[in-house]
Amino acid sequence: MKQEFIRNFCIVAHIDHGKSTLADRFLEVTHVIGKGMEVAQVLDSMDLEREKGITIKSHAIRMVHNYQGQDYVLNLIDTPGHVDFSYEVSRALASCEGAILLVDASQGIEAQTMSNLYLALENNLELLPALNKIDLPKADIEGTEHDLMEILGCMPEDILRVSAKAGLGITELLDAVVTKLPAPKGKDDASPMALIFDSYFDMYRGVVVLVRLFDGCLKKGDKIRLFSNGKEYDIEEIGYLGMKFQPQKELTCGEAGYIIANIKEVADARVGDTITLAKGGCTESLPGFMEPKPMVYSGIFPINGEDYENLVESIAKLKLNDASLLYEKESSLALGYGFRCGFLGMLHLEIVKERLMREYNIPIIATTPSVRFLMKLKNGDDIEVNNPIDFPDPNYIDSILEPFMETEIIVPTDYIGNIMKLAQERRGIQKNIQYIDEKRVALHYEMPLIEIIFDFYDKLKTVSRGYASLDYAFKDYRLSQVVKVDILINGEKVDAMSFICHQDKAFSWGKSVTQTLSEVIPRHLFKIALQASIGAKIIARSTINPMRKDVLAKCYGGDVSRKRKLLDKQKEGKKKMKEIGSVTVPQEAFLAVLKTDRD
């Protein structure tokens, strides 16, 4: 296919603005799928994606659209919408020449819309603005159009109106993709350069690599080389991305497709890497390849100890489909053997937990999430700590740096006060306030990541009645007064409940955790002390009183010394029991610590 008849584009939008539904309508109009198929959100292939209404993995599909008697090949590269998967979004955008900026007319422009808009502009993409859900009674079409014109500097006639659910304006939008978005501009006779925008593992065929060819062409049987690690492979199969793979003899300049080359591990075919020929290939890689960096760390342990071997196998299989998941073995006195895992964010952690349960039937428990701290010790060593267990003695620490994020919150003007108060409580540093229109405002903060990962998003939704939207990106590391808080049950440290937090929050967080534990740990026959400590200093305490038998019930009348004697005897028994008794901590207690209010 000639490059002038190819369009590579993606749809960028905030979560729940109808991106996957619009993709369904495109597939129907171009006859890739039959009209009214049973399954909605065809490109969202995981159950989790459909249930949560989010795209977790990037997807791509090839469509053919006839415009004025000429067939055009449209490669739609679907992108995730959540902030935790922004690396996948950036790679998908790098594979395109244009993007449809989709905005829900009933909700208006939100934080992730702006974030993806900036990403698209950084990649020099041509933007095609479109309003979705125009058929809803509460759709504010004129207001949202006005906002888009302010931000993009476009005219009203440049903004298309569609309803993905009702199928309104879909053909017109596809026509606009052909007429307004540019064709690829690669060189057919140059050395091949292909960008990997996604990869996943197939049990029978190894790693399937999804690529966009920028220069040259790749054929079946060619020997290819991966730029990041220099490994070489022979192409066994190459082709287009339909609902099913469509094998071809070659992929030419400007096209998107798949390559199967007997690659054993997803980690070898990293998203963002460049593929070229082993001999006579290009000398420079395509720009923008980065290693996905985990932001949140948590320990994952099987609830039943006998599931450990299954967990080892399952997490290795999961890693094959999710190259951004990092893990290493870890053991805990309280929870036994498990893994220390690195995630892109809290949603990524939740998705991994759900997938382990659904796909491999392993119930797991996750320890309190943490982030990566950089520490300088007094002996001059620099170390990284993401696990409270590895936190060194405060006497040896010279300074601690914690990660700060650039945070953007878009919210109706009615809730500015609530949001500012919440951000202040979470140690946010306000940078500026930008009014999008008379009803909505964008607040920009610099905030520590440790304050965002627990329940900041939930609190944000609560104080704004669900109207606020959040986006954040890594800024830098800064000096901070951070401490490790240990949780002690009857004087015994429970390593799985330890957490790292800012010195000013240590008392309130410690009190909150001990209070929560006192409500979920059942009463025993002896008194249980629940304490939070920094080093040897106890900063908070709660007590679970013992169950007691009424030893005076049968003691009618008589001298008081007789009653005293019975009570003293009971007291001695309790004391002895405490010496030899151990506290039974139920699994719910570990889960309760995760859900503890962190204010």
Describe the structure concisely.
The chain is an alpha+beta fold and 599 residues long. The chain folds into five domains: 3-180, 3-Layer(aba) Sandwich (Rossmann fold); 193-277, Translation factors (Elongation Factor Tu (Ef-tu), domain 3, Beta Barrel), CATH 2.40.30; 296-366, Alpha-Beta Plaits (2-Layer Sandwich), CATH 3.30.70.870; 373-479, Alpha-Beta Plaits (2-Layer Sandwich), CATH 3.30.70.240; 483-594, Alpha-Beta Plaits.
Structural class, from secondary structure content? Answer: alpha+beta
End-to-end distance: 59 Å
Strand order of the main beta sheet, please? 11-10-16-7-8-15-12-13
Q: Strand share of the residues?
A: 25-35%
- The CATH superfamily of the largest domain turns out to be P-loop containing nucleotide triphosphate hydrolases
In total, the number of domains comes to 5
Largest sheet: number of strands, sense, barrel closure: 8 strands, antiparallel
| Helix percent band | 25-40%
Label the overall shape. elongated
